[in-house]
Amino acid sequence: MKEQSTTKGFAILSMAGMLVKVLSVLYIPILMKIIGEEGYGLYGASYQIYAFIFVLANSGIPVAISKLISELAAVGNYRDAAKAFKIARFILVILGIVMAMFLMVFALPLAKATHYKGVYLSLINLAPAILFTSIASAYRGYFQGRGNMTPTAVSQVIEQILNTIFTLVFAAYLMRYGVEAGCAGGTMGTSLGALASASFLIMCYGKNNKFKAPEGALQVDNVRLTTRELVRKIIIYGLPITLCVGMTYAGNIVDLWNTKIRLMTGGIDETRATILYGYLTKYQQLLNVPISIISSLSMAILPAISAAVAIKNGKKIKDNINYSLRLCFLIAMPCAVGLSVLSGPVFSMLKFGKGSYIMTWGAIVLVLMSIMQIQTTILQSIGKLFTATFYSILGIAIKICVNYYLISIPEINILGAVAGSILGFIIPITLNHRIIKKSLGVKVSLISHAVRPALASAVMGAVVFFVYSSINYISLFIKFQYISNALSTIISILVGMATYAIALVLVGGIDSRDIQSMPVRVTKLMPKFILRKAFLKRKLL
After folding, report:
1. Rounded Cα–Cα distance for residues 485 and 394 (Å)
2. How many separate domains does the chain show?
3. In the chain, fewer beta carbons within 10 Å around the N or the C end?
4. Collapsing DSSP states into helix, strand and coil, what is residue 487?
5. Residue 515 belongs to a domain
6. What residues form the membrane-spanning segments (predicted)?
7. Looking at the domain assignment, is residue 117 inside a domain?
8. DSSP 8-state class, residue 41
């Protein structure tokens, strides 16, 4: 199996991730048409519970597989790399069975505890997905550890396509039995999509389950690890990651648990409170589109940093960390500005209904989530997860307090959850940054990585606002308002992308490494002054 570079792996995963998230956003207006605003609130609530249990079962061990395989392969211990995967796969299957049974048995108590009794049937339907995703996650960790991101990317696309189709079909069919049944039908697509994804990955593994070692590598006298030592490494790597990622997702559970009850405390009736929670879910779904690119970057850099740590290559560790943080800002900042400026038009174009004001004020969360995700990946690679987990817990505690106070204020209501997220991310990010600098002794500056993307994004935001307002005003003669808005929004996005690229070059935010990592077809379309400036900057550095 051919190993891919970090850049190529990131490109493959990001393209697949974007496609998956775009599909997950595009079917929302159709689903809302089927189950209604209140139904979508219930649907979102069921998915938050499922997502939390999902990360507890699937977040740690797959990353441990990727990290362990990349480390062992880096030092030439291919036999133990293969053995480690088989052990971890067995653990994941058992864990998937246990967590799936837990969700099925405790579906009703969980629904009552979160104040959404109507999600009981949805949780039962989501239980099989926990097992299927656990199986799929094991193989994804294997391929990522081998440096081949293609099977993971293809499996994600297959999963989302089938999820989209079956979600809409079963939701429409079961709505005749009521909103709760319709929501439950909408969750059936998740289990069927996960089953198809796992099946595809098993097939890929059957064709690529051999390590192609360099000539003479198997004769190298490596110290073999016992089964007990490998299990211990999997637990040591996987447990802190599970806790850390679990704490990140716990923020959504906090929103689920106390948002509705605090809204009602502020004088909002239960139906309206459920609808407002649905607004928050739509906001989170849109944030997940650009976040998928950052997640792809995280998955691509983890094996690279882990391998560099294993062979004690300090320069490579520093380069990968700075490169990942730089890409994080280059991607997250323009997305956040664009979503904030065009929140209303985007919601209208996607037929999301109401709630765009949450995105206007809360797009900054996208940048904070991205930074923390990259920091978590770095800390995973260097074995500093327990401290980071403690800081995540501290962030969750702050979020709970902010949510509790602000959401019950009628003038703020659901925006209190956004404010809680902002403060809940800022604290861990600050503390994580200190750990990374202290542990590695490398120069890592968040501000220096952020300045140029921030300037280019500000220019882009101003241009996008002007272009949208101008085109929308001119196109008012079009009879259908939806077409006018969609046309203005799409053109504004395209102009914004071009503006950001040009502004980024002018402020020195792109160098030759970025150009060389792009496909040749893309670089041929770029103006020559951009290429000249990028390569000149690299030479000066």
Report:
1. 43
2. 1
3. C
4. helix
5. no
6. 12-35, 47-69, 90-108, 120-139, 160-179, 185-205, 234-254, 289-311, 323-343, 355-374, 386-406, 412-433, 454-474, 486-508
7. yes
8. H
pLDDT tens, N- to C-terminus, the chain (541 residues): 555 555 565 566 667 766 777 777 777 888 888 888 778 888 888 888 888 888 888 777 877 777 777 777 777 777 777 788 888 888 889 988 999 999 999 988 888 887 788 888 888 989 999 999 989 888 888 787 777 778 888 888 888 889 889 989 998 898 888 888 888 888 888 889 999 999 998 888 887 766 555 555 444 555 677 888 888 888 877 777 777 677 767 767 777 777 878 888 888 888 888 888 888 888 887 887 787 777 666 666 666 676 676 677 777 777 777 778 888 888 889 999 999 999 989 888 888 878 888 998 989 999 998 888 888 778 777 767 677 778 888 888 888 888 888 988 888 888 998 998 899 899 889 988 888 888 777 677 788 888 999 999 999 999 999 999 888 777 766 667 777 888 888 899 999 988 998 888 888 777 666 666 555 555 665 666 666 665 555 444 4
Q: Please give the structure tokens belonging to residue 111.
A: 């629904």
Cα dihedral sign, 379-323-453-298 = negative
Instruction: Look at the chain and count its residues.
Output: 541
Question: Cα(256)–Cα(50) distance, rounded to whole angstroms?
Answer: 12
Q: Which residue, 436, 448, 419, is CA-closest to 508?
A: 448
33 Cβ contact list (under 8 Å, min separation 6) = none
Q: Distance (Å, rounded) from C-alpha 103 to C-alpha 412?
A: 34
| Contact between 70 and 145 (Cβ < 8 Å) | yes
3-class SS at 351?
Answer: coil
Tell which residue, 350, 424, 440, has the closest CA to residue 392: 424
Distance between CA atoms of 128 and 192, rounded to whole angstroms?
9
Is 520 within the bounds of a domain? no
The label of the residue with tokens 């968040």 reads: 446
Residue 435 and residue 429: Cα distance in Å, rounded? 10
CA angle 301-304-306, nearest 5°? 105
pTM of this prediction? 0.70
State how far the Cα of 391 lies from the Cα of 248, in Å rounded to an integer: 10
Domain that holds residue 268: 6-210+226-509
452/468 Cα distance (integer angstroms): 24
Asked whether the beta carbons of 432 and 369 are under 8 A apart, the reply is no
Element (H, E) at 47: helix 28-58
